[in-house]
Amino acid sequence: MHGMINRAIQCFLRDTYGPKIWADIAEQADFGFDNFEAMLSYQDALTSNLLSTAARNLSKPVDALLEDLGTYLVSHPNVEAIRRLLRFGGDDYKDFMFSLNEIEGRSRLALPDLEVPELEFFENLDGTHTLICLHSMPGFGYVMVGVMRAMADDYGALVFLEHQGWRDSGEEIINIQLLEESFAEGRSFDLSARVG
User: Which residue intervals define the domain Heme NO-binding in the entry (predicted)?
Assistant: First the structure.
């Protein structure tokens, strides 16, 4: 697993629950180190161990922890660059959803060796939408549920999101109902704003 993913999990746990909780999780997981290096690669088993140890420590199911991670990736000030990357997807939430079909390519321009999920988004005949997510980390679809929920808040849209499980091929299915596109005032976003 790319170190950037492990580092994101570490930062989420530290920023959300505090440095003491992160230190306890790192010690219990028995990594032999305290911090992940963003540009290194780690065994997938280490990431699974990190998630299960964190879930156990926080008395939370892993899927809820992953969904919270997705929300963090969009809404926390420490990771504003991810929000900006996603907001380039369009002026409204519907445009953003369709832009997910191109996110893998856009991400590879910035970090060619980062394994981003394969995403396929489409509109169903009944007006609902489906997002298919495939990633080597089981449960990454829950991260996408958190991302989608936080981005709905960012745009001011009202949505209902439901993780519907896995296909035999490992793809995770997320059902999205866009109930109201302009439900509330979204967060301000300036395309030309400076980050940092």
Answer: 2-157
